[in-house]
Each structure stands twice: as C-alpha cells, then as structure tokens.
Design brief:
9 helices, single chain, alpha/beta
Length: 257
Amino acid sequence: MGMIPFSDLVRYVREHIGISGPQSMPSFAAEAQAWSEGMTKVQTLEEGFRQMDSKGLLNYRPYDSPRIETASPDSVFDIFNVDSDNFWNHHGNTKEDYMELASHLPEIQERMANGESLDSIRSNPHLSNTVDAYYADDKMMKVVKYEDGYQFQDDGRHRMMAAKELGYDVPVKVVGEYTEEETEEEETEVTEDNMKALREAEEEAEEEAAKARKELEEEEEKAEKEFEEETVRTEKELEKEADEVEKEIEVDEGIGY
C-alpha cells in the first residue's frame, strides 16, 4: 500500500470522527501542546510557526502583487515588545492617541461597506487621520499569511494593538505566504501514524456497522413476531366469528312458522 498523505488522514478524521487539526505533524504537535496549555489562537499560531521554522520546514512564497485583506488582530503574531512598560510611548504619541485612531475603524468600515470611497471618507475631518493611518498604501500594515493567521512584518504594531484592545478588525497588506513541507524521514513517520489511525478508524466504523446490523436484525425479528401474533389472533377471531354465524344459521333453521 502506498503512503497516505497526512492531509488525507486529517480530512478522514474530520469527516468520520469529528476532530479538527492542522495539515502537518509538527504543527499538529504544536497545536496539541497549545490546547493542553490553554493558549490563545495567536499563541497557538506562533508556537506552531516557531516549531516549523526551527525544523526548516517553512517555505516563503512572495506574492507578485500584495493582497489587501481584513484581519482580526487576534490572528496576527510576532508583534514584538508589547509587554514593555514603554510600549505605547512611540513617535511622541501616547496610548490614548492610538486608541483614538482605532476607535473610528468601525465607522470607516461601515461606510466602505455601503459603497463610499476612501477619498470621500478622508474628507471627513474626524476620520481622515484614521484613514491615513490604517488605509494609506504606504502605511498599511504588512503581514505574511501562515495557516489561518498572519505573521506581522512591518511598522504598525501600536495601531494593531490598539485595534486589538478595542476588538476591531484591521486592513492588512498580505505580501506573501508560508507553506509547509515534510522531509522524507518525517513523511515515513507520519505514514506509520496514518496507518495506525486509519486502522483504528476502520475498526471503529466496523463496530458501529455491526451494531447497526444487529439492531436492524432485532427490529426485523420483532416485527416478524408481531406480524405472526397478529395473524394468529386474526385467524382465531375469524374462526370465532364463523362459528357464531354458523350457530345463528342453525338457530334460524330450527324455527318453524
């Protein structure tokens, strides 16, 4: 039997057992560790990225043209120095300045969704600074796609963290993506795990099928027994009715006029 791609195993497990997981064994291990330690999504992504990168299993593919996407800050990792006491003291700005900028994101996004252009929105004095800070081509935050998240790449970490604290999505410029590859040795190890997991899944499926067959047979036997009992009861009732009719005929024949 040939080797079974791990992605096929993951798909099989998702469909038949209901367990989700990433597309490679190293990131699967990282995610399992993250689940056990109660990590957030961004911590899970970062842990998986670190493990894959340390094994040399990441390929970076730049895009010919950047892609503009809307991202949740909760899915962006590698934003450095956020725990520093001086984090918000940047370019002469304060945390309040960044929070003020981010506070207008929902209004801008709503107006864009209704078809209004950025130039039109920028003409509004109380929105212009936020449009420039988050949507200007030369200031939009750059990221690289990794699984279902993003690795932070460029200036803008204060704007990103302000939006995160307020719970608002942000526009990002996706300049490329990381893809994962497996070495031949690791693929062999994964294949052994594949076979074991598939055998267990097949055994579980066979047990479920046998259980279903048994239940069906029991239902059929029960239905057949009930039918036989009903048939016997009906025959007895018919015989009884026939006897009664016959007796009535005999009584009628015995009456003289």
